[in-house]
Structure formats: structure tokens, C-alpha cells
Amino acid sequence: MNWIFAHGDGDGVSSAAIALAVLKDARVFFSHPVGLLNDLKDNVKPGDNVIIVDIAINERHALEIYKLFKVLSKKGSLVYIDHHPEPIELKIEELPGTIIHNEKACASELTYKFFMDKLDWEYNRLAIYGAISDYMADTKFIKEAISMWDIRHLYFEAGVLSQGLEGSRKLYEFKRHVVEHLSKNRLPSALSELLVRALIASINEDELISHIRKNVKIHGDIAYIINPPGSVARAATYARSITKKAVGIAGHIKGDIVIMSIRTSAARIDLNKVLRIISKKLDIDGGGHKQAAGARVPVKKFDEFLRLFNNAIKGS
Ligand SMILES: [Mn+2]
To answer: What is the pLDDT of residues 242-251, one digit of tens each?
Structure first.
């Protein structure tokens, strides 16, 4: 039996479609870093062929994943293609099996390159959708691929795909259908359910923006919004754009924790660095990239968090 394990966002779905275009009879399964180990254990039998795309290796499961990959790659074939940062405990390249890992490109680009010899050039469109969806369309390879098409066509289709998947997080049957459709290199916009979902996502985006306009709060150089009606990643970006502040924070309160996304466009600020320092001081989880990061902060520490954060970016 052939398996494709993929992340369920635009990049994961595009990667899965590229793989399915080559391995036509594979079963597509959607997973994520925390679930991958058990999803593999529950479904794959030794001797099966497995492709995993766009799913990071979870820190806590790294060693068990290593052992499982060893078994699976011995009895069958195992291909792992990803672009997320590697866990501290393990070098991704040392995993057993065929390992493709590169943080500088999206998973769809890596997957397309891996199967390129077996596909018509038109399939590079799927790599482009994934790249746009993951904000990684400025690699040399993707830029060249884009130049082979009319860019307006590409952005429309990539938009339909990524926006259409946005509101469909757990609709796995629907997503499998999308993967199958795309694997024939058919247009995202030709799938009416996806198109309608993308339209709804666009309307929601505008509602999110007007909600933030009315409810955003300011603390020094930070604009923040609590419980926005929609994705905290997007809300954080809009919070800073609307207020013209350096940093935007948006959080959903779950229990007594604020789960937040943090965004900046200021090159002088390194969110990851700031968060690592504050995390130690406040004993919270936080980190990510320079311009896009996340944190989990108890509600009762939130004001202190804002104060420390604002002080840190003032000085940077
Ligand atoms: Mn990705």
C-alpha cells in the first residue's frame, strides 16, 4: 500500500497533489507535527511505501520517529520532505529513509523538484500555489516557474486554494477531494466548493479587519487585539497595519492562557530574540521567526508581558 501523509494547509495540499500525480493509487492522510507519530503507527504497516510532506518533526517525538522511520524504510520505502526547523535532539538529514529537508523553500517546491522527472512542466503550477500559500514565492526556482505563466492566473488560483482551505481545517474528506482534483492539474477555481469557501474567507477577512479597527488596543509600540473573530496570525498583521505600530499581537483566550501570534515588519526588531528573553523571565512558551512568532501567556501575566515586550523593542 502507498501512503501520502501531508499537512492540511495550502502548501501541504499542493505537495500531496504533486506526490499523488505520480503515485496515483496512494491513500492521502492529513496529519500534523504532534499527531504524525501515532498517525503513522495506527495506519502504516511495515512493507508499505510512505511519503510524508510538509510535517515538521515534533521535538518530543524525535527519537521515536527515528526508530519508526528505521523500520519503515527497511521493509518498504520512506520519503520525508519538509522545510520546517529541525528539532534540537536530532539532525533531520540523519533520519533513515530518503530525506529532503530545506528551510529556504516551501514543501511544494521540494516535492515538485523531487518528482520533476516524472511530471509535465505544467505541474510546476502546484509548486507555485504552495509557495504563495506559505509566503515562500521568492526562491529562484519559484520565480522562474512563475515566469512561465501569466502571474494573474497564478495568484487567482493560489488565492482560491489557500483561502478556500483556510476555513476547512478539519474537513479531511473534502481536502482529500481537493488533492485528487489538483493531482490531475485541474484548476482550484474549477472546484465549486473550494471557490465558495474562498469567497466566504474573503468576506470574513474584511469583517476581521473592521472588528480590529473598532477593538484594537495600544500599549506603547504594540497594537493588540484579544479574541478576534478569525485567525490570530492575520489579526496580528492587521492590528499593526491599522494602527501603524511596529508590532501587532493577537490572541485567543483558551482557559486561562492567551494563545497569541505576534507580527512585525520592522527590520530592527527580532521577535524570536525578544520572546526568548521574555519567556525565561516570565516562565512562558514563546518563539518563532524574526518577523513572525507566537507565545502562550497566562492571562494574569499578559499585562506584564506587554510591558516587558514594549521595553525590549523600544531599546532595539
Ligand atoms: Mn509548508
So the answer is: 999 999 999 9
